[in-house]
Amino acid sequence: MEQSFNEREAIEWIRENWYKTFLFSVAYVILIFGLQYLMKERRGYNLRMPLALWSLGLALFSAVGAHRTWKHMVFVLTTVGFKQSVCNQLFYVDPICKLWVYLFVLSKVLELGDTVFIALRKQKLIFLHWYHHILTLIYSWYCYKEMLSGGGWFITLNLTVHTVMYSYYTVRAVGFRLPRWIAMAITFSQILQMAIGIILCIFLIFWKEDEVCLCTWPAISFSLLMYLSYLVLFCNFFSKTYLTSTQKLKGE
């Protein structure tokens, strides 16, 4: 199936339908805040098993996708070097990972379902969560339709982090208590991912004029602003969740 997948038709379809990410985003916001309003006077649902299965499915998908994209990335790194791994657009059409890159893009619509569980279980919904889901969806489709340089690293790192993150969610959903440092490590890995994204954007600015590194100022600006906003929000989340709360506990 990987070999027979027609990536050119897929890219063309995304180019024709990219605007729908904005429609998905509007529908998503209406749904989640509508659910929160409906659940205001009701008890939250347990949903442990559905959430465990949901998280397990996303963890397995991310693991397979990470395996395939890393295989291509390692090949490029060991044959033509780091610069080509950033600038190379073959990532989107390579027989090894082209199917998984497309599925990754589509999966950003599916991942919006994470928030439905939060609303139905009456858990705290923070700005970072839904902002991150919306912007990642829009950016992923934009990245794919433009075949952006740097997209290979963005997708590979995201799949890698999500493999660990959704595995953690699966274990938590079935009722196992895990050490606090694991959650801290996952959040730190997300922060590291955003920092790497910013560094890659800086490289793209310097390499923009090279014939091998095809990217535009709108694409670089979009990427840089997204990663910067994520870095600030994740650092703030890490500080409030793990550092400030720890200090409060010590104070008590």
UniProtKB/TrEMBL annotation:
Compartments it resides in: Membrane
GO biological process, one term: fatty acid elongation, polyunsaturated fatty acid
Enzyme class: transferase
Entry's transmembrane regions: 22-39, 51-70, 127-144, 150-169, 181-207, 219-238
Molecular function, one GO term: fatty acid elongase activity
Entry's EC annotation: 2.3.1.199
Domain of life per record: Eukaryota
Keyword Transmembrane helix: yes
Xref: PROSITE patterns: ELO
GO cellular component: endoplasmic reticulum membrane
Membrane topology note: Multi-pass membrane protein
Catalytically driven reaction(s): a very-long-chain acyl-CoA + malonyl-CoA + H(+) = a very-long-chain 3-oxoacyl-CoA + CO2 + CoA
Keyword check for Transmembrane helix: yes
Keywords: Fatty acid biosynthesis, Fatty acid metabolism, Lipid biosynthesis, Lipid metabolism, Membrane, Transferase, Transmembrane, Transmembrane helix
Family per similarity comment: Belongs to the ELO family.
Protein name (database record): Elongation of very long chain fatty acids protein
